[in-house]
Each structure stands twice: as structure tokens, then as C-alpha cells.
Amino acid sequence: MHTSIPRIFLVGPMGAGKTTIGRRLAQVLRREFLDSDQDIEQHAGASIPLIFEMEGEAGFRAREKTAIAELTQRANIVLATGGGAVLDPDNRRCLAGRGFVVYLRASVNEQLRRTRSDDNRPLLQTADPRARLAQLFEQRDPLYREVADLIVASDGQSPRTVVQYILESLGLQDVTC
């Protein structure tokens, strides 16, 4: 285990590959992989769409804030966050102050391609998902950049290539994935 490496937090829009890349990165580094959305679902005993339906986005964001505050304190982890985790200033402080933040950047076209058959994304249950993704990107991109130690474009990149780039950025050229 590479204990000299800080906790690694993945941020970025839905469909950027945070979960896929995070799982692979954790496996290579022999770390625990955590996903803040999965943690929220486990604690709530309900799916994210149901939480949105019952509590609204505000209720979900309150749950997310609690999860981020707790999860970012765990040692030796790779954490994938929800796309909107950066909206809360406290979440941004936790992420930026407690680990190495990787912003996985994906174009709106790529996000649309990767999420179009996923019904588990409440913010995309709209007549024009492309416009919604563009709006979210415009709102959140500056916040992702604010907390990022590293920005990686995931469009057209294999998970293996992205993980290798992250490892090299951490000074781990000797680790292969």
C-alpha cells in the first residue's frame, strides 16, 4: 500500500468516469474505493432518485454534505464524489484540504453518450438532457477547477490510460495498471 500518497478524491460531472476510474485506481493502489452516492444510498436505505423525489435536491445535498465530511476523513481511500458535491463550500473545503483532488473533465457530448440510458440520474429527467448537462457544466466547471490538484480530460481515453496518467502525476511511474 502506498501510504505516502494522500487520499485521492475524484470530482467531475456525471458520466466523466469517476466510479470506473476510481475503482481501478483503488485496485492498483490497494486502497479502499468509496463512492459518496453509494454511501448516501446505504445510509438512507433508498436510491438517489427516491431521495430526490421525497426530499428534493436540498434534502439530498444535506445528506451529501454529511457523507463528504465523514468520507474525506478516512485514510488510504479513493473517493468518487457525486457531480454536484462541489456546490457546497464546506464540501469544497473538505475535498481540497484533506486529499489530492482529481477533476475528471468530460465534454457535454461525452456525458450525454455515457448517461443516456441511465435512469438513476434525477437531474437528467428532463425534456432536453443536453441543455441540462451544458447548464450544469457551466455552473460547476469553475468549482471543479477551484478544488482540483489535477485536471484530466476523460473523453476518448480508456480508464487504464487515465489511471496511468493519475499515477504518473502522483510520481508513481513504477506502478502499472
Secondary structure: elements and pairs:
Elements: E1 8-11, H1 18-29, E2 32-35, H2 36-44, H3 48-71, E3 77-80, H4 89-98, E4 100-105, H5 108-115, H6 129-147, E5 150-153, H7 159-169
Parallel strand pairs: 1-3, 1-4, 2-3, 4-5
Helix pairs in contact: 1-7, 2-3, 5-6
In words, what does this structure look like?
The chain is α/β, with parallel strands linked by helices and 177 residues long. It has one domain: Rossmann fold. The protein contains seven helices and five strands. It has helices at 18-29, 36-44, 48-71, 89-98, 108-115, 129-147, 159-169; strands at 8-11, 32-35, 77-80, 100-105, 150-153. The radius of gyration is 15 Å and the shape is globular. The two termini are 14 Å apart.
What global shape is seen? globular
The unreliable regions are: none
The CATH homologous superfamily corresponds to P-loop containing nucleotide triphosphate hydrolases
Count of helices? 7
Helix content: 40-55%
What does the largest sheet look like? 5 strands, parallel
Mean pLDDT: 88
Question: CATH first level: which class?
Answer: Alpha Beta
